[in-house]
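Example (one chain per record):
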Amino acid sequence: MKHMSKKLLHTPEGVRDIYGREYARKLEVQARLHASIQSYGYEDIQTPAFEYFDVFSKEIGTTSSKELYKFFDKENNTLVLRPDFTPSIARCAAKYFMETKEPLRFSYLGNTFTNTTKLQGKLSETTQMGAELINDPSVEADAEMISLVIAALQHTGLKQFQVTIGQVEYFKGLCQEAGLDEETEYDLRDCISAKNYFAAQELLEERNVQEPYKSVLLKTADLFGNMTSLTEARELVRNARSLAAIERLEQLYEVLKLYGVEAYVSFDLGMLSKYNYYTGVIFKAYTYGVGDAIVKGGRYDNLLHQFGKEAPAIGFMAVIDELIEALDSQKVELPLPAEKTTLTYRAQDKADFAQKLAQAQVLRAGGQAVALVAQQD
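Predicted structure:
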């Protein structure tokens, strides 16, 4: 019994408790991100922590089945804890806004759950905040989302960060031009997104991909940097799909210059995503002091089709836990609520209690946190 009670004090692997000043800091970061998102006209939406399995199925292009937390309801339906928000928002938009044609702007906050055995210090449960812009296919919508990311990160106090932009269609067009089958395309995407040049080379040799396509596909992993990388990428391809992707990025850069945020932007045509539902522009925000991206996002023009609504969309999500780690590493100070005031009163002394209570009420009315504590004899 004693052994069991000791075990119950600990959390399972991949999750943790947050309390005190650490939690206050987390709430402050969330409040600042939320204020920035709202300033762009986004409205809050809440979706369930678990959904039917099919919302996150392979066909929809989300997280691998083996990385989902799965369980059953009393009707024996398979349910999963959400691994990311975008399919849930897409389902919700299709259900309640099926006929709506004007742009929809949604903001969300909540926890996501990924069941992975290779934690490597990462959490299975993370807090995410993000925004989704639905029914707008324009390059201006792409720019709005990326400029919003930059404004939100700045508002948290982060100064040194970079938003790297890719284009899924460039890679897909190149794979199509090279005649790759779907399986090879997916496998190659995994290699290139991980910057695993040797694995990508081995894969292309195994699948007998001929020159010049083998060299060009491998070259995509090195296509990153400023606008010069886009010029180089354009010269490598002949197909209309990839060329249109480059043109879209060039247009996007021009709009981002109008926002005045181009200093925070770079390009990476070898940046791909594990989420198959992305269809065009994708982006990630990186900073010092943390190994992974603190923001991820992109365009997913076909995802709502899976739920019966034809609507283009783009969105992003910020990983709050990673962002706080970066802020701590860079020693960014944030204003936190003042420490609470403690007023003690003598137990069994009604007059003293009434006096201290009156004092506490005045302080609380002025916005101060006050704890009333009975004096221990």
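Caption: Residues 20-39 form the longest helix (20 residues).
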